[in-house]
Amino acid sequence: MVEAHVKMAGSGEVRLLAPVLRAAGKRKVVFVQPPHAPNALALAAMGLDPSLVVWVNPDRTADAMWACEQILKSAGAHVVLFWQNQVRTENLRRLNLAAGANNGAFFMFRPLACAQDPSPAPLRIALTPAIGGILVEFVKRRGPVSENGLLIPLSPSFVHRHAPVDRPVPTPAPARSVRPELVE
Amino acid sequence: LFIAMRLWIGLYLPQLPLEAFVPNWSNSDDAPCVVLEQEKVLSMSRQARASGIKPAMRRGRVLMLAPDATIHERSTAREAEALQAVALALLKYTPCVTLAEESILLLDVGASLTLFKGVRALCRRIGEDLRGLGFTGRLSSAPTARAAWMLARAGGGRVLKQQSMSRHLDRLPALVPVAARPFASWLEGIGCETIADLRRLPRPGLQRRCGRQLLDTLDSAFGTAPELFEWIEAAEKFEAKIELFGRIESADLLLSGAQRLILQLEGWLASKLMAAEGVTLFLQFERGREARPMEAIEVLLSEPVWQGDHIVRLLKERLGKVVLPAPVIGLVLEVTKLKPTAPISDSLFPDDRKTDEDHVKTLELLVARLGADRVLQPKPVADHRPEVANSWTTVQEKVRAADMAKQLPPDIGSMLQPTWLLAKPIALLMRNHRPYYTSPLRMIQGPERVEAAWWDTATASRDYFIAEGAGHELLYVFRERIAGSTDENEPRWYLHGLFG
């Protein structure tokens, strides 16, 4: 289970997952309650076979939760993308358990404001659009806290001619954080 | 070397007279229930026992102890029907099911043990099925049919080997065999209490006094004499119905009733080597002032199934949505479509077919609850207008991959298309002659001219651009071109998609 916090739809959240979707192979890719209609042509342009895509669009939030859990619990491996604004922590835990039993991939998209709330997801990222790509910041991950985010170029990108000016600078190592023999 | 083990399972339904009227899953309502035979209590529910009713009580006393008790006359026809239903459901474990005296069912399971992973697992499954059917049962197993019968009648017990069977049988009361019961007082008089005592009596004398039948019973129980059986056969056409006693108004209880019918369906399908592709459940409503027609709940499956749990899951979702206009008094299950069973794949490695089947089942479940128009798959149309090209249809429709590929543009990989399409284009505000959507937009690619459907009323004549907002998000916008427009009216801009 990967939780992605997106400020608004259209930040590049699906394009970020393009390699995952391309690698889906014969697995089904299920969109549960996306904010807008997914465009099959764009998905096909990413290299995903449109016949593998299922769009589940229930009326109510409870139905969406139920549908998502059913898909995760079913035996076949799936790539599930789930959009939800209001989720209770116990529901998140349920989804996390169901996702752990499934050998597919589960991505959950929530608003950026929810990044402060606790969540059982092992990886939580915050996504913000940037020039020519997307800036991925780690809210929670396995291993030490990572302060600086990653800039991931996405297609379509319109900055081929020039290198991006506002490329993030690597953080300078504070004094004595590196052994002296390595510096010499 | 593998030799099929000889093993029989005996199944005794001690509460059958009662449960033929009231299945045990409906026990939750607290009215005591009593079955009378010749004006004497034969069988009673737990609540009736709690209110002090005992077997062989007369009707008057029953009414005195529990004035609200429901009293049924024993109906042998109903009991036979119920036994047939149980036997039908058990046909999925073995084709050899037979009905013996005192409504005990005997199953020859010697050949089924490997398939169902041992006698213990098999007994557990039969017990679960019995509970689903609404009956209380005592299960026994023994290497001979008659021994299984005797053990079941005496209260159950599981033996697998000939030696332990003899030991167990010897300990049973002497009056367990039907043929011994007319001589109860004589047997008691000579101090013959167990089967072992009975066997110790001299055979010629026992035959003279009690007849041939008792000796035959004992011989076949201990495996020294053969026995012949008449197997129960499934009817040619499946139709199962259940009359519900007590008016049922909740979908949960309806589901328990439907589950019983589906268990019978499983048995029938297994014995006929068939799989169901569609079933219909009819709900019979109580007659009010006017007769109500039966309501049909039709379940169609895209993959034929011969196991009921998937049908139960689909029915559960369907029943949850049904609004009952009146209490339900009966259920009827019919199979509408049948197919021969496809053999189970015996390949070593897990194959795709299995996961595909699972996927189809999950989608069916989603459709059953959410509705067909809520679970969609792409059905692209070759058109230049994005909203037409991006068509979706229900997953129940079969879309061939080749047709789909034909509708996609050939240079799909190089196309710049937004991931999200808005249901309806949003008209954008204008600020300083530039379209504005949360921030002023900067056009970074375009225009891409689309002119389509001039033959139609939905004429589209647009210039598409990819625009970038202040937060670097990419938007798919278009400028509407109106024929004959002059420079004075500002062009109208719309937001049509987002690069998600």
Walk me through the structure.
The complex is a heterodimer of chains A (184) and B (500). Chain A contains six helices and nine strands; from the N terminus they run βααββαβαβαββββα. Chain A is globular. In chain A, helix 4 packs parallel to helix 5. In chain A, 40% of the residues are buried. Chain A has 184 residues and is α/β, with parallel strands linked by helices. The mean pLDDT of chain A is 82. Chain A starts with a strand and ends with a helix. Chain B has 500 residues and is of the alpha+beta class. Chain B has a five-stranded mixed beta sheet with strand order 5-6-1-7-8, sandwiched between helices. Chain B has a five-stranded antiparallel beta sheet with strand order 15-22-21-20-19, with no helix packed on it. In chain B, strands 9-12-10-11 form a four-stranded antiparallel beta sheet, with helices on one face. In chain B, strand 7, helix 6 (145-153) and strand 8 (157-158) form a beta-alpha-beta unit. The model of chain B has no long low-confidence stretch (mean pLDDT 83). At the A-B interface, helix 1, strand 3, helix 3, strand 4 and helix 4 of A face helix 14, strand 13 and strand 15 of B. Strand 4 (53-56) of chain A pairs antiparallel with strand 13 (375-378) of chain B.
What is the secondary structure topology, with strand pairs?
The complex is a heterodimer of chains A (184) and B (500).
Chain A: E1 2-6, H1 13-16, H2 18-22, E2 28-32, E3 37-38, H3 40-46, E4 53-56, H4 61-73, E5 78-83, H5 89-101, E6 105-111, E7 123-130, E8 133-140, E9 150-153, H6 180-183
Parallel strand pairs in A: 1-6, 1-7, 2-4, 2-5, 5-6
Antiparallel strand pairs in A: 7-8, 8-9
Chain B: E1 8-12, H1 16-19, E2 33-37, E3 40-44, H2 46-50, H3 59-65, E4 70-73, H4 76-90, E5 97-100, E6 104-108, H5 118-133, E7 138-142, H6 145-153, E8 157-158, H7 162-171, H8 184-189, H9 195-200, H10 203-210, H11 212-221, E9 239-248, H12 251-272, E10 274-285, E11 295-305, H13 308-321, E12 328-340, H14 352-370, E13 375-378, H15 386-389, E14 392-394, H16 401-407, E15 420-427, E16 429-431, E17 434-437, E18 439-440, E19 442-452, E20 460-468, E21 474-480, E22 492-498
Parallel strand pairs in B: 2-4, 7-8
Antiparallel strand pairs in B: 1-6, 1-7, 2-3, 5-6, 9-12, 10-11, 10-12, 13-14, 15-22, 16-17, 17-18, 19-20, 20-21, 21-22
Helix pairs in contact in B: 4-5, 4-12, 6-11, 10-11, 12-13, 13-14
